[in-house]
Amino acid sequence: MDEKTDVLVALAAAVGANCIPCFDKLFERAWELGVKQEEIGAVVETANKVKTGASIFMKNAVNETLGINTESEQPCCSREKTTCC
Fold this sequence. Notes:
Layout: H1 3-16, H2 20-32, H3 37-66
Helix pairs in contact: 1-2, 1-3
InterPro entries: AhpD-like (IPR029032)
Organism: Desulfopila aestuarii DSM 18488
Protein name: Alkylhydroperoxidase AhpD family core domain-containing protein
């Protein structure tokens, strides 16, 4: 994997882990490598969809276990109940 891809993957992981210091450091490195703002924005958007989708999937699973008939919609393109993104 090239360094640009490595940094973009790490940026997505930082977003998923809610690690602001990690994101800040990786953002600086990405900028040094010439990664465009649009590319970083796209990576962050995708990472947030996965993170939010996983959280909603967990909420729905807990509600189902508790017998609560409320289900939140996934923020992703998939309508399957077995995936978060």
